[in-house]
Specification:
single chain, 291 residues, alpha/beta, Rossmann fold, eight-stranded mixed sheet, 33% helix
């Protein structure tokens, strides 16, 4: 199935913010820039679009933060050569390049927020570009503890995009949502082949030890209590292994979708954490230091 044959109801929403197209290395990357203040970079989930963050972007902008919602490779206008295949380190380099090209970053640091696959990229950014990252926020982050076979199988069927919209909606609800929660229409969209192939490869070919710990920056982990795709044990493992820098917020009656299921609870947790870790509180950087 080509990307052009996707039913209109399966297409993503328009993202909030000013669209900007940047060249970073061999990649062309699209991001949506909105608001003013400390910069929060938002990285979507597997095959997903930046517009998934629309409501959170608006809340962050109203609270005095600038947001940069990035379309990862293969999504929207973001493009990159198929070969050589990218790893999470390459995706991290994309983020660093976008921040550098956009400019306007106080003290040269940003907050990095990622959901699901985006949480892997966020942690890779913190590992490979520690001088860039003030804090890391993870939503529905997995990678360590795998889901059950049947959950993984259903998710694979969803990612394949061969199922009709009504079946996709059922799979989304059974796999990504807590019991009783219903997905909005835009979440039936499953992403493009360009994005899914690149991101799946990067996830497979990036060893866990090169990104999972997420560097040394303060980290907030927000996780749905009923997450079937990324079991809650992923979140508790982060807290238990790095208690000195990881805060865990478990959101009740929420699954892997998390943000559209409990937007108020997630937004409150994110804003509270950002206020606890302001960039302005850091010592001024030495402009002559080469980091």
């Amino acid at each position: 199935m080509s990307d052009r044959s996707v039913h209109r109801s399966q297409l993503p929403r328009q993202a909030v913010g000013t669209s900007k197209i940047l060249t970073v290395g061999r990649a062309t990357l699209q991001c949506f820039d909105a608001g003013a203040g400390e910069t929060v970079v938002l990285l979507p989930g597997f095959g997903r679009a930046a517009s998934d963050y629309n409501e959170l972007v608006q809340a962050l902008n109203q609270a005095g933060y600038r947001t940069v919602a990035l379309e990862l490779r293969g999504v929207g206008a973001s493009r990159s050569p198929f070969w050589p295949r990218a790893t999470l380190q390459d995706f991290a380099a994309d983020v660093a390049g976008v921040v550098r090209e956009l400019g306007g970053v106080p003290e040269g640091k940003v907050h990095v927020l990622g959901r699901a696959f985006g949480s892997r990229v966020a942690r890779a950014v913190a590992v490979h570009y520690p001088h860039l990252v003030r804090s890391v926020i993870l939503l529905a982050a997995g990678g360590l503890v795998l889901p059950s076979f049947w959950v993984y199988w259903r998710y694979g069927l969803l990612a394949s995009r061969v199922s009709p919209p009504f079946l996709r909606r059922w799979i989304v609800q059974q796999t990504l949502y807590a019991p009783g929660n219903r997905p909005p229409h835009y979440l039936v969209y499953g992403g493009s082949w360009r994005a899914l192939s690149r991101q799946a490869y990067a996830a497979r070919r990036s060893p866990l030890e090169t990104w999972w710990h997420g560097g040394q920056a303060p980290m907030l982990v927000v996780h749905g209590q009923d997450d079937r795709l990324a079991p809650l044990a992923n979140a508790t493992a982060s807290r238990d292994r790095f208690p000195e820098r990881v805060q865990l917020v478990v959101v009740p009656h929420a699954g892997h979708a998390l943000l559209p299921e409990q937007p108020g609870l997630v937004t409150d947790a994110v804003l509270r954490f950002l206020k606890e870790h302001p960039i302005a509180a850091l010592p001024a950087r030495d402009p002559l230091r080469n980091e």
